[in-house]
């Protein structure tokens, strides 16, 4: 049923555009060599800061490196960090939420929730910057962990609230009466009931992580050269904004499009999983839906829906 | 109500203790977390590094360092910066005005645009203009504020040449130049919030417009304008108050990067520099400040809620 709704969504004009955009993004990350016209780290002093031409569609930077090739290779960095951070926070947050919710009201639940509260108190960027400082700036693992920790609290609260609502359900009582262990009830019966909110949350969290990675790299604390990174390109391009604006414009636009894409995909999946939302697809109805429960790093608004 | 306020302020103490202890321990036990590496460079001998650690008090057990920090906190002494020749309290106090002004201006700008835009989006519905407004809010939510800042600098600084004399000066010295220098950073910071709050308000307004009391007001023959502004908007704004209040700490976080882009001497830039140079006292002091800001802004939101909605009572 869900798959049918998803297929129907993908056949609409906006669904087709989103599908193609996601395909291109994944293809660029998986096979950058096939799509990239040049080696992204090849320095060519004679081509320094060339404006966009047919040969170099998005121009070159100070070292003569092709901007388009760096953006294509940067997709891999962005998606690798994004997917890893989201996966890490998903696993950690879900585990905490499951345990905390199932034993809700216990000392364990109280302790875990106070820790989650302490994490939740910080705006994502401040938390990410602090964790990067703790783990050591400039390392890709530090960036992944820093961005992941910022999302653990949201996942934990989301799963906990769902588990609290489900733990008294009849199917859980039935499983318990049949002698199922707590682990089995959690993993086989309760966890599957949380997948819908987790999928939507994860896709939207990707957009927040993309922004976060770009922000950290822009501040010089994220991915270091020669690994191509959109945030790093922005940082470099900013230095010669007056003479070669294309170096900063293109990676910024790539970040914008990617965030836009993940937000839309997240909303589409939410519509697919929530038939009530699917029934109303006019812009006014879209406006009635609460905004994405995302907190884009650096310019993030907390959203009450994610704080339940 | 005062008992409620007191209870919330008291909660701040254990929260701040947990947060600062966590940061304190983690920063000092982290791999590569030794600030002497940064301060003295990798050429420093082991003996020189040990001397520097002793001078900074970093050779003592962590818990002793933390208790010492807490003891001095009692007299509002946040320690001395490793990087700058000044104490952290002075450094934070010197940088606070720029950050507060930036946050305040951005909040004002976002509210001034979000309220009319939210009303318009709710009323315009699926008309062509309504679709444009919806698309614009979506774009506002997705645009990175540091990139938007660069675009603004390029447009107004490089293309139009309007930023020739836009270096930051304090408000008390020259308010005209101060506002001129803060306008673009505030726009960069406000863009996301303006778009996000527009969606909130629009969503809340549509919900209110479909409620029973609005139907009754219509049945009584009230004008649409009166219903919208006098009855619907007043109720729809209440959830926005929560969002605006909760956004303040996030705006402070956003200010980190905006201050770097626009070279503003604010707390965000101090924090970013402190992280890069492992200036523990500065990081610790900023984190404490953010913690207090988060807890207090949440308290203000709760109290404002009680004022706006008389049904809410605090025991």
Fold topology:
The complex is a heterodimer of chains A (308) and B (315).
Chain A lengths: L1 H9 L2 H18 L1 H4 L31 H36 L4 H14 L3 H12 L4 H27 L3 H8 L4 H9 L4 H24 L11 H10 L6 H28 L1 H5 L3 H6 L20
Helix pairs in contact in A: 1-12, 2-4, 2-12, 4-5, 4-7, 4-10, 5-7, 6-7, 7-10, 8-9, 10-11, 10-12, 11-12
Chain B lengths: L1 H28 L5 H6 L5 H11 L5 H12 L14 H37 L3 H15 L2 H15 L15 H35 L2 H8 L4 H38 L5 H10 L3 H29 L7
Helix pairs in contact in B: 1-12, 5-6, 5-8, 5-10, 5-12, 6-8, 7-8, 7-10, 8-10, 10-11, 10-12, 11-12
Please name the defining characteristics of this protein.
heterodimer, A: 308 residues, mainly alpha, MetI-like fold, 14 helices, 0% strand, elongated, B: 315 residues, globular
Structure described in brief:
The complex is a heterodimer of chains A (308) and B (315). Chain A is built from 14 helices and no strands. Chain A is an all-alpha fold and 308 residues long.
As a whole number of angstroms, the C-alpha radius of gyration of chain B is 24 Å
- Secondary-structure-based class of chain A equals mainly alpha
Task: Report the top-level CATH class of chain A.
Answer: Mainly Alpha
**Beta-strand percentage range of chain B:** under 5%
Q: Per CATH, what is the topology of chain A? A: MetI-like fold
Q: Which sequence of SSEs, written as H and E, runs from N to C of chain B?
A: HHHHHHHHHHHH
Average pLDDT figure of chain A: 82
The gross shape of chain B turns out to be: globular
| Structural domain count of chain A | 1
User: Which second-level CATH architecture of chain A applies?
Assistant: Orthogonal Bundle
- How would you characterize the largest beta sheet of chain B? none
> How much of the residues of chain A is beta strand, in percent?
under 5%
User: What is the CA-CA span between the terminal residues of chain B?
Assistant: 6 Å
**Cα-to-Cα separation, first versus last residue of chain A:** 28 Å
The residue ranges of chain A in which pLDDT falls below 50 over 5 or more consecutive positions are 278-308
- The helical percent of chain B reads over 70%
Shape by Cα distribution of chain A: elongated
| Arithmetic mean pLDDT of chain B | 82
Say how many strands of chain B there are.
0
